[in-house]
């Protein structure tokens, strides 16, 4: 990882009881961009139904999403939700119905998070089932709101499983 990445706070690791939401609060406005790295699994019973829904500053309106996903045998593209950004891309986060001990890897990149323009982000996500399919997806999202991002909430479809992790990084200019 580039030496311009600065870990903000501690890595969040979900405990035995699971967690509905992972929150990063009081984000300082001292970096140029933000990156959230996730390794997650959902407790939902149905396979391939895990999603990670991202919101900024508690805002639950004015989001737009464009996504592209693939499973190795099929591809899909489209638009999604206006109340959140779908970082799990609807089915990329493994669940209890998938192969045991498999986790998704998700990276959320938020440029110019402290600026006075609308907030964009990109998502790169992968997940696998070790049986029939491996999933990959990309999402471009936008929050039509000019407030600086001071908090990020990531909510699971059901609960994030034990050992799911999330780490927030600030990116400094060279």
Strand share of the residues?
over 45%
Main sheet overview: 9 strands, antiparallel
Supply the CATH class: Mainly Beta
By helix and strand content, what is the structural category?
mainly beta
Indicate the low-confidence ranges by residue numbers. none
CATH architecture descriptor text: Sandwich
* Helical proportion, percent range: under 10%
Oligomeric organization of the protein chains: single chain
Q: Give the number of DSSP strands.
A: 13
- The gyration radius over C-alpha positions equals 15 Å
- SSE topology string: EEEEEEEEEEEEE
Indicate how many domains the architecture comprises.
1
Broad shape? globular
Mean residue pLDDT: 87
What is the terminal separation in angstroms?
14 Å
